[in-house]
Amino acid sequence: MNFKKRTNFLFGALLLTGSLLAQNVCVSTPKTSLVLSAPEGGTLRHLYYGNRLSETDLLNIATAEAGHTAYPEYGLNTPVETALAVKHADGNMTLQLEVLNVTTEKEGNAVTTVVALKDKVYPFFVNVCYRAWQDADVIESWTEISHQEKKPVVLNQFASGYLPIRRGDVWLSHLSGSWANEGFLTQEPLTPGMKVIKNKDGVRNSHTDHAEVMFSLDGRPQENTGNVIGAALCYSGNYKLRIETHDDEYHHFFAGINEENSAYSLKKDELFRTPELALTYSNEGLSGSTSRNFHRWARLHKLAHGTTPRKILLNSWEGVYFDINQQGMDQMMADIASMGGELFVMDDGWFGDKYPRKNDSSSLGDWVVDKNKLPDGVKGLLSDAKKRGIKFGIWIEPEMANTTSELYEQHPDWVLKAPERDLVLGRGGTQVVLDLANPAVQDFVFGVVDNLMTSYPEIDYIKWDANMAVMNHGSQYLTKENQSHMYIEYHRGFEKVCQRIRAKYPDLTIQACASGGGRANYGVLPYFDEFWVSDNTDALQRVYMQWGTSYFFPAIAMASHISAAPNHQTFRTIPLKYRIDVAMSGRLGMEIQPKNMTEEEKALCKNAIAEYKTIRPVVQLGDIYRLISPYDKQGVASLMYVAPEKDRAVFYWWKTEHFCNQHLPRVKMAGLCADKQYRVHELNRIDNVPLNYEGKVFSGAYLMANGLEVPYNHRVDYHKQNDYSSRVLYLEEVK
């Protein structure tokens, strides 16, 4: 531990120790403090969350802040929203929690504080927990609920956390959207009433809305200025975020599992743990540290292999769809290898014996190679990949089945199904969801991965898909009395499976794909290396989707692919240069049939892949600075990534509107060191002549105050002109 880190930790420990004497608890990261009042035998109250406090301010803060119950319980003087509501075995629906004690423990780079609460009458207990990361300026909160009553207690509401936010000109930023339109950014002022953001899909919880929000505390959201609170609920299942604004001076923010149709019967001595609610604070705007804090926390603590740069891949889906065969796969491997790629992923369509997978209506659950399509099997594909000098990956959808499958014929009792009701079927008219509450199903789903990896340990990458919501409320495994546990138990089962996979295959790369971007959530990502942002690969729409997604998720987790023109989802024809430049702002890959490309196009992609390898550490591990938003409709979008050492940076510029005699804003850069000198080099150049400032050196101060003039169009031969333009500039420090 270096001196600075050691000093920060010791200071935090002194604050905690000193505050206990005053009945205050301070949960601190290097730049933030969350302060609670925790008098023994009294009510746990929230006093403050914001910039890190001095010891003097901490000692006096209780006199300055009114304080709100830190974990509001239902039943006594609760006309407003609450975090916890229960029904005791005797029918009593009230709680009155008091502080028992406070404990703290250092765990690696985090300090965990636990405030133990107990009901004044009933043997009912709640631990309110906080984990303060000292290397990421993020605080996670969650609760642990238990009791020693003779009969089960019904949990009707069980939020992970609560935060009061002082009223003023407060704006909310959040993401929404469904298939092919994920990550759509909405920014709106908070007004009196109730704002609810929730998901009830059952499987894919980032379709419809996201479980992450940002609060801009002093007016319309700004990227690099202003005070901002960021919040992310780390849960893979149904969630609910509530923001209540009534007649007091605060907005009241609650986040947790969506309790709708999910009342939980808690047995004596059983521990119910809510998912973490991650909080961060910054006075440097939305990207200004809020996004960067989340990204750093994700890479260090919430994303599998979060500090390991990702491989450049070709995925087969849009190239061949279900038309998989041995020769075709080898041809695609040869093509991506020739362009400098590092990995080939065979998508859907490779499996099925009695029911070969020819379309989306059959075979899910029958994870055996279709020998008619692949006579040499996976072993032959691995041999081809080795011959080409690349790695091999494969697609699965292990939580699902089709009614037209051998699995369903053998185990109809393994699917989610409501008693006395016909099955509601999903994709292809035959898809069903397996019941992960059932340990036998958990073993099966684990076995899908385990059998593949045991048989073919050279597999480097798995694309894990999930293309159906829970459309049948009913578990054939759970008892009649516990049917309301279905959603919660599904995701407990999902987590158990993921934990088993990661324990046995810690080095395996796994992508979370769920009808595209349906699983972009920090409850999922500890077990996955990345997620598929969207099935929509249209570069122009991806500018918007990836912009919104970047609010909470780092580039290393965002799979972004070069696709065909016309695009397969929007049918828009976008030039290859633009498609490349957009894809290079995330984890670069390809979603295309290379044999349909011209040699000139292959050469452009080969060059782009080589240049991406140069900038990959900056993009995937650097700090984001969003400069001009596409949502501001200024005709251009721009962002940049800066290496932590500020010696390298990558600047992106995309034209988003196309009109004659249009005037676009000049983009000022950010995040550079004012005193350093940077040489400018354009990547993926197609112009006949270089930019005026190609190879020139500018100070960080100049680039941040003035930016560089970006031509509106590319200087290319007449027959190559089009209405799209984009630029990628690489900045390297000159020492």
Tell me what the structure shows:
By secondary structure, the chain is α+β, with helices and mostly antiparallel strands. The protein has three domains: 3-302, alpha-galactosidase from lactobacil brevis (Beta-galactosidase, Chain A, domain 5); 313-621, Aldolase class I (TIM Barrel), CATH 3.20.20; 625-733, Golgi alpha-mannosidase II (Immunoglobulin-like, Sandwich), CATH 2.60.40.1180. The chain is built from 13 helices and 36 strands. The strands form six sheets. Strands 6, 7, 8, 9, 11, 12, 14, 15, 19 and 20 form a ten-stranded antiparallel beta sheet that branches. Helix 8 (439-455) runs parallel beside helix 9 (486-504) and helix 10 runs parallel beside helix 11. It is globular. The model is unreliable at 1-22 (pLDDT under 50).
Reported for the largest beta sheet, the result is: 10 strands, antiparallel
Morphology call = globular
Give a count of the beta strands, DSSP E runs of length 2 or more.
36
Number of helices: 13
Could you say which structural class the secondary elements and strand pairing correspond to? alpha+beta
| Low-pLDDT segments, ≥5 res | 1-22
Oligomer: single chain
Beta content: 25-35%
Overall residue-averaged pLDDT value: 95
Distance between the termini: 29 Å
CATH class of the largest domain: Alpha Beta
Do you know the CATH architecture of the largest domain? Alpha-Beta Barrel
Number of domains: 3
Considering DSSP H and I runs of 4 or more, what fraction of the residues is helical? 10-25%
What is the CATH homologous superfamily assignment of the largest domain?
A: Aldolase class I
What Rg, in angstroms, do the CA atoms define? Answer: 27 Å
CATH topology of the largest domain: TIM Barrel
